[in-house]
Design a protein that fits this description.
Number of helices: 3
Low-confidence stretches: 1-5
Shape: elongated
Distance between the termini: 17 Å
Number of domains: 1
Structural class: mainly alpha
Radius of gyration: 17 Å
Strand content: under 5%
Length: about 90
């Protein structure tokens, strides 16, 4: 994320941005886990005959992706330049 006046803790919008980012981080972690589960379950499926579990996991992955995209859109709407890759980079 880009530093700027919106991210100043004194700015009234700061708690909103912080809350959105917390939701984003939470859902991104769940999304990553669901993607792994989907990939494992898909190994038991074929393209023409996916298992019920694979279909359910695919729906969860898609729903989480929509939520994540909406968080990013909210942050961008608030005027914060946001790069999701930066948020999840390893910290030294």
């Amino acid at each position: 994320m880009e530093s700027g006046p919106l991210l100043d803790p004194q700015n009234p919008a700061y708690p909103m941005v912080r809350s959105i980012v917390a939701d984003l981080r939470r859902d991104f972690a769940v999304w990553c886990e669901k993607v792994r589960e989907f990939e494992l379950e898909s190994a038991n499926s074929t393209a023409g005959a996916p298992t019920d579990a694979a279909l359910a996991l695919e729906a969860e992955v898609r729903a989480l992706a929509v939520d994540i995209e909406s968080y990013v859109a909210e942050i961008n709407y608030l005027g914060v330049a946001f790069d999701i890759q930066e948020l999840f980079k390893e910290r030294p």
